[in-house]
Write a structure and sequence with these properties.
Structural class: mainly alpha
Number of helices: 5
Number of strands: 0
Shape: elongated
Order of helices and strands: HHHHH
Radius of gyration: 18 Å
Mean pLDDT: 84
Low-confidence stretches: none
Length: 126
């Protein structure tokens, strides 16, 4: 049996990993598209490591993709795992399972959005 808490922790780690894809690619593209280039330069001067993340976007996307794959596998494997018989524990188990799925799907959406701005959008504009 897979513990629902480990699914939740994996999903949250995946959310943080996929958020790196937004920081490296989607956020700068959004700020420039909105005409907020000065805001982007301010953000980069305050957080200079954003440039490092952008320079290593392939590694960031690879790491986030691996995390998404692991989390997706754990979600799929634990989808029918039994929950405790005790009503309170059963409800907690089911609630944790639902939250974990929502966090995973949010991570997937964030990853795909970052991937669009990092790889697809530049090819379309060239």
């Amino acid at each position: 049996m897979i513990a629902p808490k480990s699914n939740l922790l994996t999903s949250i780690a995946t959310l943080f990993a996929s958020s790196g894809t937004l920081i490296c690619c989607a956020l700068p593209a959004l700020l420039v598209a909105l005409g907020a280039g000065a805001t982007l330069s301010t953000v980069v001067s305050i957080f200079p490591k954003i440039v490092w993340i952008s320079e290593h976007k392939i590694e960031v996307f690879t790491f986030a993709g691996v995390m998404l794959t692991i989390s997706g596998y754990m979600q799929w494997r634990g989808r029918f795992a039994p929950c405790p018989v005790d009503p309170i524990l059963r409800n907690a188990c089911l609630r944790t399972r639902k939250i974990s799925l929502v966090v995973y799907l949010t991570s997937l959406f964030v990853y795909l959005t970052g991937g669009w701005f990092a790889f697809v959008q530049p090819m379309l504009t060239n």
